[in-house]
Amino acid sequence: MKRIGLLCGFLLLVIFSLNVSGAQKAKNPQYAPVTVYDPARDADKDIRDAVAEATRTGKRVLLEVGGQWCVWCRILDRYFEEHKELTEFKEKNFIMVKINYSEENENKTVLSRYPEIRGYPHLFVLDSGGKLLHSQDTAELEKGKSYDLEKFFAFLKKWSPQSDRPTSNRER
Question: What SS3 state is found at 133?
Answer without folding.
Answer: strand
